Structure formats: C-alpha cells, structure tokens
C-alpha cells in the first residue's frame, strides 16, 4: 500500500498546477490516484482543484464504496476513474479536465498529430475518442471502459479529456503536452501555417529505439 498522505499531497500539488497553467478552470475537472491495488483517492464533488484540502480527497475502492467521507461525496465522474483502474492495473493516476484547446478539438473531428515534436511522439502515441454521454453517467463510465486499453489519452467528445498514466507526474506531463499540441494545431490552422510533421518511419524509430524515454508497453 502506498503512503496515502504522500498521494494526497501529490494530488493537491497537481490540482494547483493544473489551475496555474490553465489546464483546469472553475470547479471543472476531477483527479485521482491509486493508493493500493483496489483503492484510490479522488476529488470530492464540487471541489476547486487549485485549493484542495485533505477533506476534498475521498478514498474509494473498485467496488464503489467510499471511506471517511464525513458527508462529502466523491466526484460524480467516479465511474470513469474506476473503469480505468479496473482495466489498467498498471495505471496509478487519472486526470479529467476541460482545457480550452483540447476541449475544442474534442468537440470537433480534428485529428491530433503525433509526429510534430518529441513529446507528442511519446505522450500522444495513442489517442482515442469516446462518444458523448452525460457527465457522471454509468454510460460514460462504460464508454471509457471500452477504450481504456487502447490509449492513455481519451478525448471525451463535447466534454473534455481523460488522461491516465503510471504516475501522477507522467499523467500531468501528458495532459500538458496534449493541450500544447492542440493549441499549436488550432493556432497554426487559424494562421494558415502548414505544419510539417516528421515522417512516420522516423516517428516509429523514435518510439522504438530512442533513449529519451523507455518504450511504452501496449501489450495488455
């Protein structure tokens, strides 16, 4: 079992980071991190990510139970987080947000390029779309469950994004990389700038052999 106080602190820092860098706004978004094989901490309903207190993070298990809530309710988006943890035992953090440019792309049919720069080749290697379902619904949870093994980034159509990875830090990096890539995509199209991506063979060589980061294991 992980040190729950350490996980709580990391989530508080991540919420503040997301607000400071414009990845989250208002009381939108919810974040979680695994504390043991079958438990995780998740933000409470209606919390402000930039100012998370200890009581704003509720421990839940994969059976749907909550612990030590003291009248607080876990985020209504818990079905999405639970679906990822159930499908991907190696995942330790799930971030849901509605960043401006990423959500713009999620509400369109634009494809996100993966071959523009190093970080996109690594973090955006696999991106999937989940059709719109009402926030917090079991249908949305099942939509995420169906795609959880196919990617580490899900575009929730007309809703936002869901990013998950083996650590809170990696998930945060992936979320910021996604927003930067989407911003570059929208700005370049608006300015009439034709971006030149790397050849897909070069992209494949980087993913398989570059020393920048270890090759991700997609053999689930």
Automatic annotation (TrEMBL):
It comes from the Bacteria. The keyword Magnesium does not apply. Keywords: Lyase, Metal-binding. Residues 9-186 form the Class II aldolase/adducin N-terminal domain. InterPro entries: Aldolase_class_II_sugar_metab (IPR050197), Aldolase_II/adducin_N (IPR001303), Aldolase_II/adducin_N_sf (IPR036409). GO terms for cellular component: cytosol. PANTHER family: 3-OXO-TETRONATE 4-PHOSPHATE DECARBOXYLASE-RELATED, FUCULOSE PHOSPHATE ALDOLASE. This is Class II aldolase/adducin family protein.
